[in-house]
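User: structure tokens for this one?
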Amino acid sequence: MSAVQHTSSTRRSMLTLALGVAVIGLQDPIIKGLMDGYPLAEAIVIRSIAALPIFAILLWRLGFVTSLRAGNQRVFVARGVVLMLAYTTYFLSFPAMPLANVIALYFTAPLFVVALSRPVLHEQQGAGRWAAVLVGLVGAIVVAHPTGAGIGWSALLPVVAAALYAFGQIIARRWGGPSNATVMSFHQNSVYLVGASAFALIAAPLATTGAGTGPVDFLLRAWVMPDLRDLLLLALCGPIAVAGTILLTKAYREAPPGAVTVLEYTLLIWATFWGYVVFGEVPGAWTIVGASLIIASGAYAMTRAAPVASA
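Assistant:
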């Protein structure tokens, strides 16, 4: 592939990732707005079921049986489990902090891409990139400001989510092979559906009917029948997730992660917008300063010369 073709492909992947971020970010205000009435597993199950007809149509156009047999099924399932854990910890942070804070801490994901690229992708990272990782982690601590009256250690939830998400996307690059992004996303959705349903059954004896609003309450709240409005909103997350995950998977499979991950930061724009419009949340000084450090360090790390693959 020529340098011109590579640049053109990378730019298309960057636009694809930016669009995927904007689309999948539409889930956040829906889930956060409904988190006081429904458990997280129920939201994931409804979302995953609503996505199935869309996946059926897309896979039928690809050749249903042939497409599902293509690729390494165990890798797809493993990646789905990693991303399910990522999004679970991500959503569990919603009751603990404003949406912009969640996203700011979640923006450590590109830094984890740098950290994981050496052992997984065998890419050598320069001192500048590692310095950026350290600055980004300082930024995460600033956002969390765990001492005093700050957010506290619940800030670990989106950071753990970021690490798992980064690993899941690197799996797509390292072991995804020639499989279509739609196929990988279908497996991801199937793992979500089975995993959330299994968790709901296992956790049923621990389910609570109280009015608590913390992360544990969001995880263990008893299932209830949603009214029509809430059901439609939760179901809407299905097509949103389908479109978003396909776009993100496509972007990470067709370009080096370090070249496109910086576009993840556009999610902060959407998080701030939705947080203000829907919930009246205004980012505080700690969030602005910490997010600036995370974004600056991540942008630096991701826009340096491509890392060199080691033997």
